[in-house]
Amino acid sequence: MNAGEIEKIWEETKKILETEIPVSSYDAWIEPLEIIEYEDNQIKLLSGQAIAVEYLKKNHYPKFIDAFKKVLNKDITVNFETDKELYDKIRKSKIKEEKKEERKAEKIQKKEEEHKKAIENLGYVQSMNLNLKYRFDNFVTDENNKMAKAAAEMVASNPNAQYNPLYIQGGSGLGKTHLMQAIGHALINTKKIQCVKSEVFINEYINSTARNKDFNKSNLMNKFRNKYRNIDVLLIDDIQFFEGKKQCMEELFNTFDALHLSNKQIVLTSDRLPKDMPEMPQRLISRFEQGLVVEIHPPIEETRIKILENLAVTKDLTIPKEVFSYIAKNYKTNVRELEGAFNKVEAFASFEDTDITLEFAKHVLKCEERNELNIEKIAQEASKYYGVSIQDIKSSARSANISKARKITAFISKEYLKLKLEDIAKYIDKKHQTVMYGCDQIKDKLNKDNKLKQELKEIINILNLE
Q1: Neighbour tally for 206: CB within 10 Å
Q2: I need a surface site. Which of 66, 282, 367, 406 has the fewest CB within 10 A?
Q3: Is 129 left (phi over 0), alpha (psi -120 to 50) or beta?
Q4: Cα(228)–Cα(225) distance, rounded to whole angstroms?
Q5: Sign of the four-CA dihedral 226, 229, 235, 239
Q6: pLDDT per 10-residue tile (average), the chain, 466 residues
Q7: Three-class SS of residue 235?
Q8: How many alpha carbons lie under 13 Å from residue 342 in its C-beta half-sphere?
Q9: Is the Cβ–Cβ distance between 346 and 356 less than 8 Å?
């Protein structure tokens, strides 16, 4: 039985004694006692005063026996000891631990009160679409995202001072939404904020152009524009979804200019760089690029382990580090996928009422089977990395990201899997000569394009080819 369980027994026993012994005696002689041992049906209680021990033995010993029997449901022996030095040491340690817990509780309460105050004071918070878990203090940083976090913190500390707009680019699940929303949380008490996904903005705009029995077209449009222009900070997630939607892009352009001219902060996220959206008007692209564009790349293994450790702490789970290492080694693409693997292991352990061990994690995730490499797997990772679909890779589309994902798939399949050009061509539904030309292009560019070289390295790392 551990110390915590023994302490719990004593606390339950004291509750019984408190009802049976006069308050003056209880407070003076029983409350200060410390339980130091429970073994072989014997309880050992410690006091710092010999007079206390003598008093309790003489006046209340039977009540101790009865109280412990009620708690433990069996007869036990109670022994009293006096050791001033040991007693003082235990008390000091307890007081120190209590103060530590109090400080921790105060910090938690302070944070909760700050959030509560923000929500109470700002009636529009519910419409801001901010997720409470996305904050700067729980964003794990490494060399692949530290510049993006630093830029986001700078914008949060002094909006519209330097980086406007702030454009955060990264693949799915790498933390761009986390950073964008963290800016919103940092400014929640001082600025009027609107956070929106691109699809929501687009749908609201479309609805505002319609007529209904309650509002005419003009009223709906005014309501829409007031929502997104009479604010201090506009956060738009996944800006790439505007591409190709002519009227929506026009409205976005006008909203952007209205805010920018009024010295309001704009933050945008996308899985593509502005230059990689060929159907986006050049005037919009130039506005996206006029502030600061920062990129987020997949986290390194050490960071992925730290993310998993933090996740375990939030769920109050004790898990061997080798489990974190196993999950981190096999889930490299993005944080969302990493957390999904962790949650799957946790859920299965809960269902089966078992501890999470390395063997259990291997049994649940079956990474060895999942990681068996073929051209389909290469295409999946390349499409994720460049923010396109496998259908895009197999299509005739020629946008920058699709073309690059297609050529990288072919290049890795040829160089690392040693597949024949004919087999690659069949998979991506292209001519043999097209595949050969694409592979040659990649090989040639690797000698002079450092960005492409880094991208290829990251995809190869995700595929465990190095």
Answers
A1: 14
A2: 282
A3: left
A4: 5
A5: positive
A6: 86 92 89 90 91 91 93 92 88 84 80 64 57 86 93 94 92 90 91 92 89 63 92 94 92 95 95 87 94 92 92 89 92 85 92 91 81 83 90 87 92 88 89 89 88 89 78
A7: strand
A8: 30
A9: yes
